[in-house]
Structure to design on (124 residues):
């Protein structure tokens, strides 16, 4: 047997209230996640086998696009063990290296074709 605590007219507004509250919470949650996942981009150049600047920084917990411009007349390979990336960039050209969202810290990178060419990404 069904117990009817509320008369039919009172039941609907209560249910509507909860539905709206739930929807509101879902929208809030989704937009916070959206902010956290919004990517950021940072640029760096290579000239005379030196990164310019040799230190770049980016916010934590966001995917990062590193735009690498190779101003030298030789190809280079942007590489990092801690970032788990590797990308060849032809002479006089540029490439984008996409990195996952990172915890705060220092992440070293180098040119695999000219190992003395080194730089650091500071995530904070
Ligand atoms: Cu390599």
């Amino acid at each position: 047997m069904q117990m009817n605590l509320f008369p039919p007219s009172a039941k609907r507004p209560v249910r509507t209230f909860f539905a709206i509250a739930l929807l509101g919470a879902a929208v809030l949650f989704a937009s916070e996640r959206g902010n956290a996942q919004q990517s950021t981009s940072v640029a760096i150049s290579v000239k005379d086998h030196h990164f310019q600047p040799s230190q770049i920084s980016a916010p934590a917990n966001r995917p990062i696009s590193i735009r690498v411009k190779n101003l030298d007349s030789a190809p280079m390979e942007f590489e990092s063990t801690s970032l788990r990336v590797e990308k060849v960039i032809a002479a006089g050209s540029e490439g984008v290296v996409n990195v996952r969202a990172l915890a705060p810290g220092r992440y070293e990178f180098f040119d695999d074709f000219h190992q003395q060419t080194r730089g650091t990404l500071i995530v904070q």
About this structure: The chain has a mean pLDDT of 87. Residues 56 and 121 are 5 Å apart (CA to CA).
